[in-house]
DNA sequence: ACGTATGAATCATACGTATGAAGTCAAGGG
DNA sequence: CCCTTGACTTCATACGTATGATTCATACGT
């Protein structure tokens, strides 16, 4: 098979010559817009010639002419986190089906401007931005459509999780088990997502007649080592919380280590609830009770919304929610009796 | 800030008009090839005009004209695996520095052909293929440069791990602790990487005068659940192995669960060694002794090699090795005395 | 038999950039 | 005073595709 990725040497002109037609006809046939304009026999001849020569349209020329790259960018804060991998997968699946390609940009190194430059070079038709403030340069009038993920906004279309529902279910579960001192191990990142989680936690406590006091709260950077340190702090407070809602499974994993450090058992001495239901949640000891959502669907849904905006659909959705559910495993139990 | 990603409405002609020069001059100045051809004052005027208008060259036009997209593709088997995320990050860093963009393609869904089509559409200048057989359509005469990662090959440039060294160190560690029945929990994937790991394991045993018998071997699909099942099988054999070398940290995590299922302690009853030193390795109980390598550097190195081939450097490397080292944590200890 | 409607295919051009060839102008040598 | 040299600039064109405008031939109605 003689073919090239990228600079395909065989052009529509070659196909035209072989099929004995003009380049225009080739373009019409292969772009599908020849319906009713090109005779069936001619169309067949073109398609045959194209196949025989292994023709693939030149993306750069097509993009230049049409102004559409059929490429969208997905901006994530940390591709190391498997959640984003699954989001990408979901988005990629939907994109492939629609003839689009997804370019992933990881802004972990914080070099947002550089990333934007990369995207500009890649000529994206639209942008999926996950859980971070969209790069300023990506917005502005005349910019490409942007869909925010996991980050509510009033001025831009967004796809978010039903966080209130998720936290609510988790808190109801813990309250139902008899817990009262339910702490919150929160990510020290002031993004709307985590603010929403914090608010939902506080509201659930208030609704149960419990004061969401400061000594029930501890912040941590976004790593299991930081969470381990923060967790030791939290678990040494007196009175010790009997349950901890964590903003993320990775943080929950850190908390498990902290409990182990202090000789505490989970869920015997303290119950732990995570967030996101990463694969990790099943691998740690004990397996985590966690707030789950369909991660790939998140990506799929977001792409669909973006595509609607790219196409300029009048009824393209502005704000969409994705349901969450509580997965109960072995890290939660009634509080110690003493 | 009025700017667009993608279809930047302001073209080099606009800049030319504003600076009072021709489009050619703009191109010469901004592409850096005007050295000695364009007067300093003119160049300054062009650059000023470009900045004022917020000009960004149209990637599609540039690609069409030059035949270079300044984009490379990274093909990975499973972006959910954090290792690949780190590889991407390393590659992306090197790529950005060189003015390149990395497009990630995840072939997890097995739809390799579809992926290749996506890459073709994206017009890549080169391909980084991680640990899987390169898509046939990507090769063939006249194809773009390909660098294989973690997959030795004679006919294509490759960057691989010093597996023999890594396995050797792990086995020496276990043998030094007094283990004799050292089993191998292997990934049921016949890629060269895993074949190499298996061979290195067998060689180490033979060198120690131990028969790498079949009952020391168990295969598993690439997930912690599958490894858990396979691990239970392995750990119920008689005589039970006192140590297990796992092809991957995820498999090792599954084995830990299997041990727990059977009421065995790690490392008391059985020692476990993983591979890759994922973040997960520190989070499980007990933390895993594992064969580690500098993952981002792996990506960086691979991109550098690819770039050399794209540029057609005569001395572009064919085969490169990356060092590995053993990280000793808490999952290994001397075998039980009984 | 002639004008026209219709289907089929082609023409010509534009997208925005890069670049070899050609042009301009002033200074300097013969 | 003309011609060369050199330092700048610009011209013209090509990359490969998409598409509105156009041509062409055929069939139809009167």
Automatic annotation (TrEMBL), chains A, B:
Which positions are tagged coiled coil?
Answer: none
Q: What is this protein called?
A: HTH-type transcriptional repressor CytR
Keywords of the record:
DNA-binding, Transcription, Transcription regulation
Classification via InterPro entries:
HTH_LacI, LacI/GalR-like_sensor, Lambda_DNA-bd_dom_sf, Peripla_BP_I
The UniProt record lists the HTH lacI-type domain at 10-66
Give yes or no: UniProt keyword Transcription regulation: yes
| GO molecular function list | DNA-binding transcription factor activity; transcription cis-regulatory region binding
Coding gene?
cytR
Task: List the PROSITE patterns hit by this protein, alphabetically.
Answer: HTH_LACI_2
| Source taxon at top rank | Bacteria
Give the matching SUPFAM superfamilies.
lambda repressor-like DNA-binding domains, Periplasmic binding protein-like I
């Amino acid at each position: 098979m003689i073919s090239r990725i990228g600079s395909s040497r065989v052009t529509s002109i070659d196909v035209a010559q072989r099929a004995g037609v003009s380049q225009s006809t080739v373009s019409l046939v292969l772009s599908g817009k020849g319906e009713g304009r090109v005779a069936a026999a001619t169309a067949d001849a073109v398609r045959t010639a194209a196949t025989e020569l292994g023709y693939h349209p030149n993306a750069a020329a097509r993009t230049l002419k049409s102004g559409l790259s059929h490429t969208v960018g997905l901006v994530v804060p940390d591709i190391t986190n498997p959640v984003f991998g699954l989001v990408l997968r979901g988005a990629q699946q939907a994109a492939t089906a629609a003839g689009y390609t997804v370019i992933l940009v990881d802004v972990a190194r914080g070099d947002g401007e550089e990333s934007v430059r990369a995207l500009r070079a890649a000529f994206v038709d639209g942008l999926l931005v996950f859980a971070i403030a969209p790069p300023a340069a990506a917005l502005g009038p005349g910019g490409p459509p942007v869909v925010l993920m996991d980050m509510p906004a009033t001025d831009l279309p967004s796809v978010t999780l039903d966080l209130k529902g998720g936290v609510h279910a988790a808190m109801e579960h813990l309250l139902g088990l008899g817990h009262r001192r339910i702490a919150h191990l929160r990510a020290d990142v002031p993004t709307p997502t985590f603010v929403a989680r914090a608010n939902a936690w506080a509201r659930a406590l208030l609704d149960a007649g419990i004061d969401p006091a400061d000594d029930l709260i501890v912040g941590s950077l976004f790593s299991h080592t930081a969470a381990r340190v923060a967790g030791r702090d939290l678990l040494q407070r007196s009175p010790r919380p009997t349950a901890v809602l964590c903003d993320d499974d990775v943080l929950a994993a850190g908390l498990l280590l902290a409990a182990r450090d202090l000789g505490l058992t989970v869920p015997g001495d303290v119950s732990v609830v995570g967030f996101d239901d990463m694969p990790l949640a099943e691998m740690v000891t004990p397996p985590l009770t966690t707030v789950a959502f369909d991660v790939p669907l998140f990506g799929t849904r977001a792409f669909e919304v973006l595509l609607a905006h790219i196409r300029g659909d009048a009824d393209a959705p502005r704000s969409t929610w994705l349901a969450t559910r509580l997965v109960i495993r072995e890290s939660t139990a009634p509080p110690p009796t003493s």
